[in-house]
């Protein structure tokens, strides 16, 4: 079992995504959110900077990691800067300094003033221009696709039944025939392909199927079958692909990072980018979802351990002469050996009898203790599973690693 890890009290944080239109950006800590009692005093990292200049490309998580071992507790040490238009905004060029109030560390913008490089362009402070908590490029392809659906949803969805001229596949600009779509011409649809089945790591219970994004199509004529034209593709469409009404991609407006409790313990059951060894900024699937009260912004610790290892120190006793023992010594014959079976028809100079005992020194195995190997933050959640981004990894992570409350 994982060692008991007490959950931290959530401290409201709101973080928004960066604009894709320019490099000028800001980190947003939304004002007006109350600070609740902490689960314990916050201690800065021993190697924290006394002064840090915010750079373009920073995220709030990366800045917080310079000061705290638990970056989601940034609100505990951030001090708003009165006298400026947006006291919770952090911009590139700002100099962050550490002060102490009542013995507790605080981080704020030096002097409450901002260092601004003059450039021949307008500086925007819109929310959409703010630096996000995490690198958006790492999760962008997974924000609205793929989806997770159960067997009934897949069976009930309209599906590609064929193409003109009896071709085997279709691409951009091609026509596809789809069973049972009755909607207004011009409506947009997404083409999805059922893929791997997600299973609960411990029970093997089905949790849903990954439905990978294949492309988009526009309805030309409704009916059974309906006629659609493919407008966008990531791979060619085939009979059996499912369709669903297209949804507008949702911008990342807010994350509320908070540690999960031990009640949300689960496992990494898949990785979405096809790697075998999981590292920082890889996207993983966790066998817990909204049915288990897992929400966007939940922070998990990823743990390694629990496997059985051989005690190699005791195993050396299999080598009868490691202590310079001799067959003439009583311990050699009456020591801690154990009978493992009988050998038959193994005639040799050392085994003159066709049947003799096989024995070896006793060795002990041990179970590796669980230890924190990384952290993951949920950015998309379904009823039975969630997608999470690996925020940090002290070692290579693997499918099957347990997840639970992160260490404080």
TrEMBL record:
PROSITE patterns: LYSM. InterPro entries: Bact_Kbp (IPR052196), LysM (IPR018392), LysM_dom_sf (IPR036779). Transmembrane segments: none annotated. Residues 50-98 form the LysM domain. This is LysM domain-containing protein. It comes from Thiorhodovibrio frisius.
């Amino acid at each position: 079992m994982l060692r008991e890890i007490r959950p931290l009290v959530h401290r409201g944080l709101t973080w928004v995504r960066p604009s894709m239109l320019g490099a000028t950006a800001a980190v947003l800590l939304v004002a007006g959110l109350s600070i609740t009692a902490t689960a314990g005093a916050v201690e800065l990292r021993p190697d924290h900077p006394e002064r840090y200049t915010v750079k373009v490309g920073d995220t709030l998580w990366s800045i917080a990691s310079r000061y705290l071992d638990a970056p989601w507790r940034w609100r505990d040490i951030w001090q708003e800067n009165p006298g400026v238009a947006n006291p919770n905004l952090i911009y590139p060029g700002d100099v962050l300094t550490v002060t102490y109030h009542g013995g507790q560390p605080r981080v704020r913008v030096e002097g409450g003033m901002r260092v601004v490089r003059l450039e021949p362009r307008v500086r925007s402070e819109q929310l959409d221009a703010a630096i996000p908590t995490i690198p958006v490029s790492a999760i962008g392809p997974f924000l609205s696709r793929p989806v997770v659906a159960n067997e009934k949803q897949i069976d009930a969805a309209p599906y590609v039944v064929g193409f003109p001229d009896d071709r085997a596949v279709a691409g951009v600009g091609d026509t596809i025939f789809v069973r049972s779509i009755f909607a207004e011409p011009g409506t947009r649809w997404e083409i999805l392909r059922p893929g791997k089945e997600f299973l609960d790591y411990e029970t093997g219970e089905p949790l849903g199927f990954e439905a990978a994004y294949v492309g988009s199509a526009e309805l030309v004529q409704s009916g059974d079958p309906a006629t659609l034209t493919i407008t966008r593709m990531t791979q060619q469409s085939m009979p059996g692909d499912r369709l669903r009404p297209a949804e507008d991609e949702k911008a990342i407006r807010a994350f509320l990072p908070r540690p999960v409790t031990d009640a949300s313990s689960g496992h990494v059951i898949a990785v979405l980018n096809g790697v075998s060894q999981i590292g920082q900024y890889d996207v993983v699937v966790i066998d817990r979802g909204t049915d288990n009260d897992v929400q966007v912004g939940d922070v998990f610790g990823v743990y390694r351990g629990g496997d059985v290892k051989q005690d190699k120190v005791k195993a050396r006793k299999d080598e009868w002469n490691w202590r310079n023992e001799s067959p003439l010594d009583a311990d050699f014959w009456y020591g801690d050996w154990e009978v493992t079976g009988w050998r038959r028809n193994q005639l040799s100079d050392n085994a003159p009898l066709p049947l003799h005992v096989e024995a070896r020194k006793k060795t002990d195995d041990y179970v590796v203790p669980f230890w924190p190997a990384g952290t993951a933050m949920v950015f998309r959640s379904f009823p039975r599973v969630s997608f999470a981004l690996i925020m940090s990894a002290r070692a290579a992570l693997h499918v099957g690693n347990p997840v639970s409350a992160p260490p404080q």
